[in-house]
Every structure is written in C-alpha cells, then in structure tokens.
C-alpha cells in the first residue's frame, strides 16, 4: 500500500452577524478548480495551525484576525487519490478590516445548510454538518 503525503490545512468559518459563512471559489489554475472551500491554506514548515490561519486570512481576504476571537471547533481528514489532508477548522466572528478577494477568487456568504447544495471540496464536506449544528 502506497503511503500518501499528508498536507495540513487551517481553514476558517468566517461568520457574519446574520450567521452566514464565507466560502471562496477555487481559481481555474488550482487543484479542483471551481469548487468552493472555506478560506485558509497549507501550513508552512514550523508553523502552528493558528499562525497559518492568521497568515492565510490576511493573504486571501485582507483582514486581520490576530487580535480577534477565533477558536478551533473541529477537524477532519480526507484522502484524495494522490495525497491526504488534515483540515483544522476554526470559527471566527470578528476581524479588523473589510473582507475582499485579494487573490481574485469569488466569495459568497451563505447559510450553513446551503453548503449541502454547493459544490464544496470533498475534504470540506464533513465540516458542513458540524457548522450547521454549531452556527446559529
């Protein structure tokens, strides 16, 4: 049995005052283009998951979450054909600045229950039920 490389990812459920969650659409030149995902990204060497999340949210959305309330809520694992992924999901309800698509990606706010009908990355799908039951 071939051992797959494991990629660790930090992702954020950015929740607005109406309890809608922000998702981002993967760009055409990325793996699984046009699928939707929770904002975040891969951990760099010697980087903790929370440090990764602060960096990725600043790069992708242009907002600062380093001094706000974000907390880990769950994690999941998934095996794609060529690699495995571990996703650490955080919830964030406060940030400094205005969210904008800094990398040209499409952004959308939606209710957690609407995510079931959205073309989400397969690795993110197990997180939807947890968000539906947690965000209200």
Question: Your description of this structure?
Answer:
The chain is α+β, with helices and mostly antiparallel strands and 136 residues long. It has one domain: Nucleoside Triphosphate Pyrophosphohydrolase (Alpha-Beta Complex). It has helices spanning 49-61, 125-134; strands spanning 5-14, 21-25, 36-37, 40-42, 70-79, 83-92, 107-110. The strands form two sheets. It has a four-stranded mixed beta sheet, sandwiched between helices. Strands 3-2-7 form a three-stranded antiparallel beta sheet, with no helix packed on it. Strand 5 (70-79) and strand 6 (83-92) form a beta hairpin. The protein starts with a strand and ends with a helix. The mean pLDDT is 94.
CATH topology: Nucleoside Triphosphate Pyrophosphohydrolase
Query: Could you tell me how far the N terminus lies from the C terminus, measured between alpha carbons in angstroms?
Result: 43 Å
CATH superfamily: Nucleoside Triphosphate Pyrophosphohydrolase
Main β-sheet description: 4 strands, mixed
Low-confidence stretches: none
Q: Given the structure, what is the number of helices?
A: 2
Q: What is the rounded Rg?
A: 14 Å
